[in-house]
Amino acid sequence: MKVKGALLKRGGMVLLALSLVLLVLPGAEAEVKSVAKVKLSEVQIFLQQRWPTQPQYVMTSFSSGNIKFLDVVDIVLDRQGQVVGVRLVYTPGDGFQRDVFLRGVRGWLFKRPTLGSLYKEVKVRVVTTDELNNL
After folding, report:
1. Overall pTM surpassing 0.90 (yes/no)
2. How does DSSP assign the chain, residue by residue?
């Protein structure tokens, strides 16, 4: 009986200590770092090398022929400010909006339109990983 009482007392102390730690620690900060509407004539996302047997992403290059489909580009950062990936929101000709998160991004290219070229105004955001849940 004494052992059971001691275990309950110790468990209560651990629970109290854990509660205090959780109250003191700051929560995750969901944040949109920056937002801009940019006129773009081309967007390309460069991914890490993939094996031919791995599934390929359908849309990672939006050139003059299909830039009209692209709606939003989110560059996603972790808590340390490192790039985790890129989220693309686009609506192809079938009218169904697609939302794709690409990991392992090596880089990207945003090309501004030249005189007379086709372009679209695209929302480009830099967001934290915690903010992705709110989008």
Report:
1. no
2. -HHHHHHHHHHHHHHHHHHHHHHHS------EEEEEEEEESEEEEEEPP--TTSPPPS-SEE-TTTGGGEEEEEEEE-TTS-EEEEEEEE--TTS--EEEEEESEEEEEEEPPPTT---EEEEEEEEEGGGGGG-
